[in-house]
């Protein structure tokens, strides 16, 4: 994660591996407005 550049956002799920779906759901619950969106962001689930 620390070495991904800003234009590599499509690689975020790959970097988190099997944990990505859980993080995606947590983001929807705890940060639905995407306030914390710096660095390599996990977008909130719809």
From TrEMBL:
Top-level taxon of origin: Archaea
Q: Record's Pfam families? A: BBE (PF08031)
Gene3D superfamilies xrefs: 3.30.465.10
The Berberine/berberine-like domain, residue ranges: 1-43
This chain's protein is named BBE domain-containing protein
Record the organism.
Haloarchaeobius amylolyticus
């Amino acid at each position: 994660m620390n070495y991904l550049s800003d234009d590599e956002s499509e690689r975020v799920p790959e970097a988190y591996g099997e944990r990505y779906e859980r993080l995606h759901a947590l983001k929807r619950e705890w940060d639905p407005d995407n306030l914390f969106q710096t660095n390599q962001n996990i977008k909130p689930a719809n």
